[in-house]
């Protein structure tokens, strides 16, 4: 049975001093810490002792994902590819600060977007995210059978993809996502069947003090 591994990675820390939910807004780049996170993951995924065979690195078109994926592709000696299906989830609160104090939730005109947390009503449906992400994962598995592929995406799409593969409900508490900055969730397939999921944090020592934004 041919074994193929698809690594779903979340990008590194983003330079975001305003603390807004940047979503799909172009131009948000990695911080210095974020670049170091990307280098750490590149070293982890291409460590000769692990004998990995990375055939492709594919990233979301957003700058933070492209910058995270670049050192991995360089270390693996492959061309960096882009797939729009790996993009961040759409969100009504994009470009705003999110919260009650000085955030967008203090304004009643936004409350109508919060009526259904199960869909969710404030952005791209969870099922839609899973559908596009599964397409990319399955396409990568089929195109690079017997090898390994790295897909660089964003926290929410990565997390709901894992939930779906594990047969769990898609609605969840965002505070309980196991998907830190620069983390890697690896899906191992035997033939077409999912055989295991393995989660790692190659840049765990850089996480204390790192800035995170919901939906990042």
TrEMBL record:
CDD domains: HP_PGM_like (cd07067). Pfam families: His_Phos_1. GO terms for molecular function: phosphatase activity. SMART domains: PGAM (SM00855). It comes from the Bacteria. GO terms for cellular component: cytoplasm. This is Broad specificity phosphatase PhoE. It comes from Sediminihabitans luteus.
């Amino acid at each position: 049975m041919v074994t193929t591994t698809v690594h779903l990675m979340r990008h590194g820390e983003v330079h975001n001093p305003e603390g807004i939910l940047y979503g799909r807004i172009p131009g948000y780049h990695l911080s210095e810490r974020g670049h170091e996170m990307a280098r750490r993951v590149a070293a982890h995924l291409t460590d000769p002792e692990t004998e990995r065979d990375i055939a492709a690195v594919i990233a979301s078109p957003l700058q933070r994902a492209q910058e995270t994926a670049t050192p991995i592709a360089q270390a693996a000696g492959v061309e960096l590819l882009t797939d729009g299906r790996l993009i961040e989830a759409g969100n009504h609160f994009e470009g705003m600060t999110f919260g009650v104090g000085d955030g967008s939730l203090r304004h009643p005109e936004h409350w109508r977007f919060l009526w259904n947390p199960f869909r969710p009503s404030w952005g791209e449906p969870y099922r839609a995210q899973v559908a596009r992400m599964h397409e990319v994962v399955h396409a990568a598995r089929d195109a690079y059978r017997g090898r390994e592929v790295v897909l660089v995406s964003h926290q929410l799409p990565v997390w709901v993809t894992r939930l779906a593969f594990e047969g769990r409900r898609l609605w969840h508490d965002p505070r309980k996502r196991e998907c830190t900055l620069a983390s890697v969730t690896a899906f191992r397939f035997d033939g077409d069947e999912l055989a295991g999921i393995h989660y790692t944090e190659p840049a765990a020592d850089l996480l204390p003090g790192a800035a995170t934004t919901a939906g990042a």
